[in-house]
Amino acid sequence: MPAVRTPSPAPHGPRIADREPVALLRLARTTPGEHFQQQLLQRLLELFGADHGAINTWHPRCFVSSVGIGYDLAAMSEEWNRIGGDAMDFITFAMRAQPEQADFANADDPRWQQAPSAWRAFLTRHGIVHQMGVAIPFEGSETFAHLYLNRGAASAPLTAHDARALTALTPHIREALLVNRLYAHARQGLDEQAQPMALVDAQGWVLFANRAFCAAWPELADLAGAEAPQLPAGWLSADTAARRRLAAAGWTIDVGADAQHLRVALQRRPARGRSAALTLRQAEVARAYCAGYTSKDVGLRLGLSPATVRVHLRNVYARAGVSSRSALREWLAQAG
Questions:
Q1: Reported pTM
Q2: Is 297 among the domain residues?
Q3: Please, which residues bridge with residue 149 across strands?
Q4: pLDDT tens column, 137-156
Q5: pLDDT at 3 over 60
Q6: Mean pLDDT throughout 128-133?
Q7: What values do phi and psi take at 15, rounded to 5?
Q8: 187, 102, 182: which is closest to 136 by C-alpha?
Q9: Which domain holds residue 208?
Q10: How many domains are there within the chain?
Q11: CA-CA distance, 21 to 4, in Å (whole number)?
Q12: What is the biggest distance separating any 2 CA atoms in the chain, rounded to whole angstroms?
């Protein structure tokens, strides 16, 4: 991946480090699709010192989605439609005219002064004094995203350096959006697997993880002493002491090579006599549930409330180290 060249120094604005594109891809690979744009936007707001922003995804025939931070997006959208914002939004016009080229306007920009009073009042009401944005098209598709990073009156005006920095980063933002979408599709099959599975690089950074791995990660991160999605080298290199500590916590790990990356499969170490890991009541609930009964039906059969049944099932899933009824059924079957 080509490095992003740092623009020449300026009084204000970020210096985009060479590692930032990699950080965006790492975020795209490890964040569920429903949360990714929100986290991406938060990262960009911090990087550019913006107070609020939005990512709006559009298709020529329909609006797709909108994510915002720093203002009431629903109220803002309603007002934008009511005043005919699409005919007055000069920044968006400029963004569309030159895709992947960031544009900006401060409060003293002539375009701001020449804009209709309704538009100036709209921006002021929502605390937007300094605007910056870029249009991001998706190759091979008519879909595109509009990214807005705005500052309020208490913040410094935007500069040409800010716009150059955002322009330099835009191809990598587009790539991160695409990669996250592709990983979301790839996850769909593996998410049916009860076993936590991940693909990591040689340094242990998680490139891809299924839903079971994501659910187990808080516990695994605590065991690893990790604050970022990175597995300890000892887990990957079969370090005896590291593996022993992992096993003591009830986990086993299997590591295999997959091209330049490593496949990692984690599993809770099965207890002897599997079903012995459950209390008598938990075993009764689990077997009835795996026979196909609903939580309500299990409760009626055993004289329990549906809420109590759900608590028992939650504990059963945790003890068995599974995340689906089919996996629990298999786990119980192996108990004999």
A1: 0.56
A2: yes
A3: 53
A4: 876 667 889 999 999 999 99
A5: no
A6: 95
A7: -105, 115
A8: 102
A9: 197-268
A10: 3
A11: 8
A12: 79
